Amino acid sequence: LMANTPLSLDIMFVNSDSTIVRIHQNTTPFSNRSLASDAPAIFVVETNAGYALSHGLTEGMKIRF
Questions:
Q1: Beta strands in the chain (DSSP E)
Q2: Angle at CA of residue 14, ends 6 and 38, nearest 5°
Q3: 3-state per-residue secondary structure call for 44-65
């Protein structure tokens, strides 16, 4: 939920193997919509909106944080 978030985000769900399994890009500020992964994930990485696109991040890529 983005109910208390005043800016748009990219939200990335990451599994235990550090693989991005779902990216929600440019989420809607103050939204009550639930954002799901569709695949097992243990981490959620939130960045400013547009980050995933501008850095070439796609589902299936591995990340390090």
A1: 9-14, 20-24, 43-48
A2: 85
A3: EEEEECCHHHHCCCCCCCECCC
- Per residue in 11-63, pLDDT (tens digit) is 999 999 999 999 999 999 999 999 999 999 999 999 999 999 999 999 999 99
Which among 21, 28, 27, 34 is positioned nearest to 51, based on CA atoms?
Answer: 27
Q: How many CB atoms lie within 10 A of CB 13?
A: 22
Contact predicate 13/39, CB 8 Å: yes
- The answer to whether residues 37 and 22 touch, using CB atoms and an 8 Å cutoff, is yes
Q: Which amino acid is present at 39?
A: A
pTM of the model: 0.92
Spatial CA neighbour of 4 closest among 21, 22, 26, 28: 28
